[in-house]
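Table 4 source record.
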Amino acid sequence: MTTTKHGFEIRGLDVPRGAAPPTGRFGRMFPTLPARPATGLPLAERLGLPGGLMDGGDTTTQQDSPTLDAGFTFLGQFIDHNITFDATGNLGRQVDPEATTNFRPPMLDLDHLYGSGPFASPLLYDTRWHNTKLLVSPDGVDLARTAGGVALISDPRNDENLLLNQVHLAFIKFHNRVVDALMSGEITDVFGNRFPPPPADSNPNPPANASIADLLSVRTYWDDLFAAAQQVVRWHYQWITVHEYLPLVCGQDSVDSIDRDGLQFFDPAGNPFIPVEFAVAAFRFMHPTIRSDYTINDKHTLPLFPLNFDDPAPEDPHDRADLRGGAVAPEFALDFRHFFTIDGSRPQRAKRIEAKLNVRLLDLPPITDVPAEIGRQLRSLVVRNLLRSEVQQLPSGQDISRKIGQAPLTEAELGISGPAYLWYYILKEAELRHRGGRLGSVGALIVSEVLIGLLDADPISYRSTYPIWTPTLADGEGRFGMAELLRFAGVVAD
């Protein structure tokens, strides 16, 4: 079984139709606030080492989220990989966010699914379908792979664990199903127009007086089909982000406030960027929601990582014993009814949002992006997150709370003295104000303003192009969320 680590590809000069340049930048959402005074390793270790204040042990049902199904943790990771990648990963010195390249366009455009499109990223596409469909494994239960087992996807991070692999695969299958449904006339494009049926194959011996349009008509059909399918998929994904994901993790009131009053603190100003307050703190609220093990289908419950770090990954994917990335055998394919509420299913819950992570994240194995030779304290995801916030010179949680007009949590509520790490503060706010079911004032404002702000700054998003649009694939009651996407994609087991 092949293991992948956090990585990236730098897009070439070819940019897909209607897309922005291939990289973005980081910046600050609260540029006038001072950095929280650095406290270095001692406090980070007190909080983040096994046995520390943020050690949540192995996940129990008492730590279940009151609102989030387990699948939303990995939908969040999928969204995160769509819009952010900082290739520096430096934990040892302060950096200027505005001088740091984000190797992702700051757009919710699924570029980690589509790469740079069929022409510039041909290895992702199925030539049997004129490059309108994305490749999957021959048996359909895994991502397509090279002979060496490397996943043929635009962002290798989406093969870093089995659960994210299967979410990425579900979006591939959703795209491919949309292509079929457009060709057959079963569905319309986003504007309600039927797509014409496929043309006959182009004439291998065209007449001498054939026009350029005649010569290109067949190729133009398939190009237009791909573009129409891509737009359907992108807009439905963006709809889910605004109308299902954000209400769950931030509260419907946060979304309604932006729709009513506009953005208050995030200003893309025609040049979208990812605030470090979002990338390094607020959107890392997902880390506490990760369980120590997951029931992936009716037959298998697996731990995140091998219990013994020295255990090598099995060569045969049928011998899988944990959730690390790599090839997927049919018996380990996800049953999404265990991850999302689908047709009355009762999925496992995400772990609640709180200032505690499951203990396996406090001693990361070398199969992740943590090198085997690194010091033990830097194997803790908590310690790494806290030190990274100091490298990026983030403000304290209390300062941002006051900036947005909220009374900050007290030291007694926080359990620590002095200015609090922004990430830690956001987790405590969710834990104390919403029983871990959703983010509190600071976290909800940052996450909702950034994700909606990026959509509003994207000239080809549904919110910019057609603000009153509603999903063309909605069910009979007008709903479209992950359950409907998975059902349409054909990945929900009967």
